[in-house]
């Protein structure tokens, strides 16, 4: 993969933006039981924060994407990162559950813009032959953010510094960290060459483009609904499963989650690169098939070691499939709305799948606290659904990207 220095910096910036976005999101998954205890409620009630964050992301994808298609990928990406950093940190000051849920909904709006902006900036800045590999790298930002949250949780949560105890509120204050990425983008990352080339040309708007391509847009939303069930259904409640069903301590939960996310990074990189050889559709299919035999290890074994092996394999599969998505959606998208449409499709799928967390928690509690059953049910059904749906997808590997198409 031969990239110029500027192209490498663009990829790094897009990766970091998504990594720290995911870090802010996944901090919550480690803290559900603690927040529930402080606000004197149960885990399903607090897990509505996951639902609200996912449900509002499509608003941010639309809003920030439209701005980026008009004013450029770079400045709007910087605005977006600052937005989710500040709103994420404000959750630390929530006086009650209602305010906390409202802030997480606003965080979802800010979070929703980053993926579309970062992926369009990167994909429009690199040669076609590098897209599969870079797609895997970019999507690995998500498990890298989860891994970072697991490390920080394991190292800091519950630690005492003098009279200060590092509790869940202090964890959310770490959301200020991503704002530092803006300084790097401002100094080192150029604007998308495709946007610069096409900024003076007349381009069709989003509604006109959707009328022309409504079939592929609707199909992609359904596909992304299943993809978001796949990722969030195997990730968001896994720490709660380890704590509530198995009674593992903070450090055990942390290292199992770290192993899982190492698997996710391996999968994203491997299948993103593999998609350049066997195609986007075939790579996604293969990854989903691998998830099925991992379910018994991942959800039904009892020792930390075996659960970690299962989690590693499961996330190789889940994020292996996801590693192809940035390039696949950008190649399917018309260039005139590439900052808006892929992110909007992704987050509209998120909206359709947004109640998965509370629904899973409800299934688990109704099954006598069997979070393993709820996780296994989701993973198995959704993996099969993706295999079926992805076979209908167009394959546009290697197409030339402009903003005028």
From TrEMBL:
Main location: membrane
Gene Ontology cellular component list: plasma membrane
A Pfam family it matches: MFS_1
Family matches, as CDD domains: MFS_SV2_like
Cellular localisation: Membrane
Transmembrane domains' residue ranges: 12-33, 45-64, 76-93, 134-156, 168-185, 213-233, 253-274, 281-299, 305-327, 371-392
Major facilitator superfamily (MFS) profile domain residues: 10-397
Key word Cell membrane present: no
Membrane topology: Multi-pass membrane protein
Keywords, sorted A to Z: Membrane, Transmembrane, Transmembrane helix
Signal peptide: none
InterPro entries (alphabetical): MFS, MFS_dom, MFS_trans_sf, Sugar_transporter_CS
Superkingdom to which the source organism belongs: Bacteria
Keyword Transmembrane helix: yes
Gene Ontology MF: a single term: carboxylic acid transmembrane transporter activity
UniProt cross-references to SUPFAM superfamilies, sorted A to Z: MFS general substrate transporter
Official protein name in the record: Major facilitator superfamily MFS_1
Organism: Mesorhizobium plurifarium
